[in-house]
Amino acid sequence: MRRISRRVAAATAALLGLGGAVAPPAAAAEASKWYLHENGVYRGTLAWQQDPSGSRPGDALRICDDVADGRGVEARLIVDAKVNRIVTTQGHSSPYCTDWKTGNLTEGRKYPVLIYVMSNNKYTYIGSVEVTA
To answer: Cα(8)–Cα(102) distance, rounded to whole angstroms?
Structure first.
């Protein structure tokens, strides 16, 4: 319980702009998960699966929109200063979680993930996290 509380606090601080990019402790069996907030208001979750586990592929990203307000959430994984993959809930009714979006990445390397809330093609940046492949 203590590990989860620390992870939630660190991710919340990062997404509210109170800290830098934060990477939660890596765990091969379970996906790392961040709770997304915009101006202190809960929006949904972002998950990163570093290594394959059960039905979850490795180097995989997914996002969930848990608030039915007509807005979506989106995450962009950046590799070598370019967008490598995007997970978005745009066009889906909430609550909605994307499928895992995966692709091979260099093991042990850290990558930024930029997170947005969007509506009518207007994107609002709400923060970033760092993931490790």
So the answer is: 24
Predicted confidence (pLDDT) per residue in 87-108, tens digit:
999 999 999 999 999 999 999 9
What CATH number did the domain enclosing 29 receive? 2.60.40
- Residue 3 tokens, joined: 């590990």
When divided into structural domains, the chain yields a total of 1
* Structural tokens at position 6: 């620390």
How many whole angstroms separate alpha carbon 4 and alpha carbon 119?
A: 30
Domain extent, residue 47, equals 2-132
DSSP letters of 38-81? ETTEEEEEEEEE-S-BTTBPSSEEEEEE---SS-EEEEEEEETT
Intra-chain end-to-end CA distance of the chain, in Å = 25
Model pLDDT for residues 58-79, shown as the tens digit of each residue: 899 999 999 999 999 999 999 9
CA gyration radius, the chain = 14
Cβ pair 44, 75 in contact under 8 A: no
DSSP class per residue in 71-122: -EEEEEEEETTEEEEEEE-TTSPSSEEPPPEE----TT-EEEEEEEEEETTE
